[in-house]
Amino acid sequence: MTIRKQLPAGDPRPYHHGKLAEALVDATFDIVREKGIEGVSVREAARRVDVSSSAPFKHFKNRADLMLAVVDKAVESLRIAVEASFLSQSDPLDCVRAAGDAYLAWSYAHPVHMQIITASCASLPRSADAQHQIDEMTGYWFAWFGAAASSGALRGDPDPSIAAVASGAQLYGLSSAFAEGRCVSPAMAADPLATMKSAFALHLANLRS
Amino acid sequence: MTIRKQLPAGDPRPYHHGKLAEALVDATFDIVREKGIEGVSVREAARRVDVSSSAPFKHFKNRADLMLAVVDKAVESLRIAVEASFLSQSDPLDCVRAAGDAYLAWSYAHPVHMQIITASCASLPRSADAQHQIDEMTGYWFAWFGAAASSGALRGDPDPSIAAVASGAQLYGLSSAFAEGRCVSPAMAADPLATMKSAFALHLANLRS
To answer: Which of A86, A98, B83, B107 has its CA 20 to 30 A from that of A140?
Structure first.
């Protein structure tokens, strides 16, 4: 079999043949990057992947349906980044630190994804699957603080749920505020990711007894 | 002068006479509450205050203009709530605590306003005046941590800017996540404001040397 046979010249199939849904979701991330979430429409996504404005409706019956798939993709990307981070850790607060740093690095590298996650904490709906993935990550988080409290690792012996909420909000606040780089003091702008990691490290160092 | 003369029966003036701009902004907060920011249009705001769809254009030339005024109102409301909170404090970390608690109480009482503030950290533009008010609050915040560091009040003698960023992100994360009540563990749902204040208190207690 020749290369020419595998990729026949003049093949009329568009590059997204069989992957139109994925191509539309990817195009939507581009739209959000350029115009914000409000700029998204199924028609615009179709235009960007060069299909007719009716073609997307086989996969997404409306804008809300498309946005559900976009939230799914953002949540899955976050889960994969975080899941890989703490496997080599055993101490629960080391797991918190590793997962937190992974979350910050992910949000800094994927500001549009983070913007989608932020919106899905407010007005943008999540699918049952996305909610399940978020719940699973939240479950780990609370379990680590519970384990840390049991072994006396938290300074002043606080309610571990409060420590988990504080630390989760810390991460969420750092990454969502930095996602668009606007809620940042000019003094911090030189290396935002280093600043985010230092702030989280300070919070966490102070939590340890 | 009789009461009847002050409020003549059958006065044909609409309630927003002379205050149409304000009425449109208030109506927009209602739209955001019901439909999210994406649901806002000048036409819909006009419909809600019962004026013709062309009437608003004397005040707001388009949707973006209307949203600028909405962000202005949200930021001003936050500034007033925070400004009143720390006047009786002298210790810088007591100022941080008072301003932080005021911010949390405000965001909990005004979730739609907080949603607008959150969006103005991402894709929603701010007027120069709103940005100035935010910058002023940020200035106070960093100054308090600078003063606390100078008097040795911060545990482990951290960079005061990092402590300020961590504590600001803590507040921002707590209040924006709670603003719509979705990024909350079920265990925390009983009294969200108490949980938010406890989490911030824990963060701050750990910062003190």
So the answer is: B107
